[in-house]
Amino acid sequence: MTDTATAPAPGDATPDDASGGLVRRLLARIDTTNAVVLPLLAFISALVIGTVVIALSDIDKLKEGDIGGILTTIKDAYLALPKGAFDGWRPLNETIVATTPLLLAGLAVAITFKAGLFNIGGTGQMLMGGMGAVWVGFTMNGPGILQVPLGILAGMVCGMLWGIVPGLLKARAGVHEVISTIMMNFIAASLVLYILKTDAFVREGRNDPISKLVTPEGRLPRLFGYLDRPELRAHIGFLIAIAAALFFWWLLERTTIGFEIRAQGANSSAARYAGMRPGLLIMTSFVIAGGFAGLAGASEVLGTQGRATQGFAGDIGFDAIAVALLGRSSPSGTALAALLFGALQAGGQKMQVDTGVPVDLVLILRALIVLFIAAPLLMKAIWRIKAEGAIAGPSFGGWGS
Question: Pick from 158, 203, 206, 322: most CB atoms within 10 A?
Answer without folding.
Answer: 158
